[in-house]
Amino acid sequence: MRIIAKRTLREFWEKYNQAEVLLKTWYKMVERSQWKNSNDVKKQFGNASIVGNNRIVFNIKGNDFRLVVYIVFQTQKVFIRFIGTHEAYDKIDAQKI
Q1: C-alpha dihedral over 48, 52, 54, 56, to 10 degrees?
Q2: Nearest Cα to Cα of residue 68 among 9, 20, 13, 7
């Protein structure tokens, strides 16, 4: 999978350094993946939430942080749509962001 954009993750872990190792690990795992559909994502990340509209939410650091991505399976691209605290996540609509 091609992830767009790592810069978003980097800017987040510079602010919340406790997320750095976890986000780097997530990035490497996803980069090596070849998902065909959301079921493939769930097989690899059992705690990921499929929220619809090709959006998937990943819990980072025991649910302290939430990562929302938009996936285009046909082109193997993962777009970072949101990374933030659980509190900030509660203020967005993950299906539309």
Answers
A1: -20
A2: 9
pLDDT in tens, 46-60: 999 999 899 999 999
Mean pLDDT, residues 4-10 = 95
- Residue keyed to tokens 């750095």: 20
How is residue 69 written in tokens?
A: 């991505």
In degrees and rounded to multiples of 5, residue 37 shows phi and psi of -165, 175
d(CA 66, CA 35): 20
Query: Is the domain 2-89 a CATH 3.30.2310 member?
Result: yes
> Which helix or strand (DSSP H or E) is residue 22 part of?
helix 20-31
* Long-range contacts formed by 7-13: CB under 8 A, 24+ apart: 8/80, 8/83, 9/80, 9/83, 12/65, 12/83, 12/84
Query: What residues pair up with 80 in beta bridges, in sequence order?
Result: 69
pTM (predicted TM-score): 0.94
